[in-house]
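ok trying this again, last paste got cut off
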Amino acid sequence: MGERLARRGGLDLTLSLAGRTATPVPHAVPVRAGGFGGAAGLADYLLANEIAALIDATHPYASVISANAAEAARKTGVAFIALRRPPWIKVAGDRWTEVNDTTAAAAAIGAQPRNVFVALGRNDLAPFAAAPHHVYLFRSVDPIDPPLPLPQATYITARGPFSEADDRALLQAHDIGAVIAKNSGGNSAYGKIAAARTLGIEVILVRRPAAPAAPAVETIDAVLKWLDHALTTAADRGV
């Protein structure tokens, strides 16, 4: 998103990151990291910095951030849009078990020992300590430190995108019997879903949280079209 906006030109841009990733990827626009202090803090920031438009392009599971952004925009009257990529849709051959959270995902693995591939953020992993009888393969962007109190766990630190071929090889190499993931949508993380389908492996999929009621689109192109209109409207109002 930031790269597309940078190429557009004529904008004073700030990309705000939550600060949860130790080594974020480089961006072509100025970056700030860390929270604002809730919706009220973000509203103060928008007014103090004379922000004309706010784009919520955060992860589909960052529901608190999205809610704060929508509320801050309402309080300040700043033009607002959310970029919400569509979730993955189950197709023929998928073996999905959908659950509401990671605690339910850990329970859904079952009582019999299994080899499990967990593709979740490091802040989502604590519930798996309650199911130590499985053999785990964890993949995360940042190292999981300290490791979980599990007798049989392997940790991989890697950043996507991951191809279907690479994830299929990974699942086969570790004899994986279940994949645990969030329904993030998009292409960069879909490799494991497609690989599991090809191999007939169960996917335990954590459902998305409810998104706040706010204007939203599904593509970056739609965001850019909205932005052109929003900035023109703001200029007409003298903002």
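PB: full thing came through this time. The chain has two domains: 2-84+218-236, 96-206.
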